[in-house]
Inverse folding.
């Protein structure tokens, strides 16, 4: 078969296969140069669409790292900006303590009044506690010693011992023995008079505690009314909407005076009732013991003496 490509090879021209290969390489090069940037743009658009679908509808995709929106270049909330990691801004500590707030709300007038009431209450409580003891009202030692003197017919010694004793029972027994020469009934009346007098003294001292318990909440109520009037005065006289801090001054005065008044009144009333019941029980025991000790003189007639 005749080679038709022979003359081409003779003149140095490329053969058929080499021409086809070179033409194909030329076409591929042109297509790559034309379609390269376009393909990269399309691929980038498709990647952005897929990222947007992953981020979710209505949300913007996160900006690439290092641009103006922030990222590693901005430090991500480091020293250059943003809140510190692990917590937000903490509120500044209050400038005044609670005690200072209470003192400022009460004012000097209410502060002095409540301090006086508190000191007086503590003093009265201590005094009444000492007066409401069994050793002060009805000591067992006096009962035993007085009964021994009576059993030994030592009436004068029994009278002297009861008179020198500072307890209520000693005063009652000495009053009874002093009037025993007038008869048993007169002796009982003398004992009852002294018992009522001692009981009145104890109740009189206890009544001051009840007075503080009743007076303290009234003072607190007075401060409540005064504080509310001050707050409403701020509202009435202010040309514009008053600040909450201005209203809080009167309201805090109203609340703290009520609080302190109740804090003084509650223990005062409780202590008064407890001590009153204790005193009443011990005075009843004094009356029973004194009548039992003096019962041996029931047959003595007026002018008969204690012998």
């Amino acid at each position: 078969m005749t080679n038709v490509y022979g003359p081409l090879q003779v003149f140095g021209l490329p053969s058929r296969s080499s021409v086809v290969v070179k033409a194909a390489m030329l076409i591929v090069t042109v297509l790559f140069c034309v379609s390269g940037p376009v393909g990269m743009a399309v691929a980038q658009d498709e990647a952005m669409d897929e990222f947007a679908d992953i981020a979710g509808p209505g949300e913007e995709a996160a900006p690439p790292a290092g641009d103006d929106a922030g990222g590693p270049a901005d430090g991500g909330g480091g020293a250059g900006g943003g809140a510190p990691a692990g917590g937000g801004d903490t509120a500044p500590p209050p400038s005044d303590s609670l005690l200072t707030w209470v003192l400022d709300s009460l004012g000097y007038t209410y502060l002095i009044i409540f301090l006086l009431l508190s000191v007086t209450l503590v003093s009265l409580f201590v005094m009444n506690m000492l007066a409401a003891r069994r050793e002060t009202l009805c000591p067992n030692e006096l009962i035993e010693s007085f009964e021994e003197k009576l059993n030994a017919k030592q009436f004068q010694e029994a009278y002297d011992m009861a008179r020198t004793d500072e307890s209520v029972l000693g005063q009652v027994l000495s009053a009874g023995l002093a009037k025993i020469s007038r008869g048993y009934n007169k002796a009982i009346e003398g004992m009852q008079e002294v018992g009522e007098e001692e009981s009145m003294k104890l109740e009189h001292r206890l009544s001051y505690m009840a007075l503080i318990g009743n007076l303290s909440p009234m003072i607190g109520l007075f401060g409540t009314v005064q504080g509310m009037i001050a707050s409403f005065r701020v509202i009435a006289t202010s040309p514009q909407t008053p600040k909450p801090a201005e209203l809080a001054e009167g309201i805090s005065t109203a609340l703290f005076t009520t609080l302190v008044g109740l804090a003084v009144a509650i223990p005062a009333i409780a202590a008064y009732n407890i001590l009153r019941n204790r005193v009443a029980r011990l005075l009843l025991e004094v009356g029973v013991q004194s009548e039992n000790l003096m019962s041996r003189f029931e047959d003595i007639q007026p002018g008969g003496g204690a012998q």
